[in-house]
Design brief:
The chain has strands at 26-34, 41-49, 55-64, 67-70, 79-80, 86-92, 100-109, 114-117, 121-124, 131-141, 144-166, 173-177, 185-190, 194-200, 209-217, 222-229. By secondary structure, the protein is mostly beta strands. The chain is rod-shaped, with a radius of gyration of 27 Å.
Length: 230
């Protein structure tokens, strides 16, 4: 899990000077996010209210520091009870992989009609791996050398490329890729196992070759995954 963290002083706000009737009304404290994945995170916070009323709690989330969208609908917000400090969490899903998010916890105090805000926290969702390659192998066949590989999952995978060189040669030659051979087209986004094959019919008998496989993601990044000798 990759997570950026900015240390901040706990968001304790005491508003007795502004609202004398509510001396030290409570605490709103934002805590670091946990269980961050490519598309989800658990938001954490703490709230405490010092007098007899229930106060709605919100997590406010945004992709820019200081710019938030209220996450909870007021009618559905959890409540901080009187005189009892509580830890609050919420599983936020549907996020964008590799995106940085900012958030804070807030507590609305109805009788005073003001909000208390915790300090801002920051996290970044994990960047996706375009391909989870489980196996890559090759063997001689009647028509040449047959390459086979298996993926456990794919994320934004446009397709594969196959390069070859003769043993001890420093130069790789591009045999084919997904733009020229439909059988090398990736599954895009897939969580199930997928199997692929490619026949190198230009391989010469009695020669030893090295092959490498690469994949291309939606942003055009090419990643070399594995090399084998056949």
């Amino acid at each position: 899990m990759r997570r950026q963290f900015r240390t901040a002083i706990a968001g304790m706000i005491i508003l007795g000077a502004i609202y004398p009737a509510y001396s030290a009304p409570g605490v709103a404290q934002t805590d670091p996010a946990t269980n961050v994945t490519t598309v989800s995170a658990v938001l954490n916070g703490y709230a405490s209210i010092a007098y007899e009323e229930d106060c709605p709690i919100q997590f406010e989330v945004g992709t820019e520091s200081g710019t938030y969208t209220d996450f909870y609908d007021a009618a559905e917000s959890p409540l901080a009870g009187p005189s009892v400090g509580q830890n609050f969490t919420y599983s936020l899903t549907g996020l964008t992989a590799g995106q940085t998010y900012y958030y804070r916890i807030s507590m609305f105090i109805p009788s005073g009609e003001f909000c208390m805000y915790g300090s801002e926290e920051i996290f970044t969702t994990d960047a996706p791996l375009s391909v989870g390659l489980a196996a890559f192998s090759g063997r001689a066949s009647a028509g040449g050398i047959l390459l086979t590989w298996t993926t456990e999952s794919e994320c934004g995978n446009l397709g594969f490329g196959i390069d070859r060189r003769e043993e001890f040669s420093p130069e790789w030659t591009v045999l084919s890729d997904y733009t020229r051979n439909p059988s090398l087209t990736g599954r895009g986004d897939a969580s199930a196992r997928s199997e692929y094959r490619y026949l190198d019919f230009t391989a010469m008998p009695g020669h030893c070759y090295e092959y490498r496989i690469s994949d291309t993601d939606m942003d055009g990044r090419i990643t070399v995954r594995h090399e084998i000798r056949v």
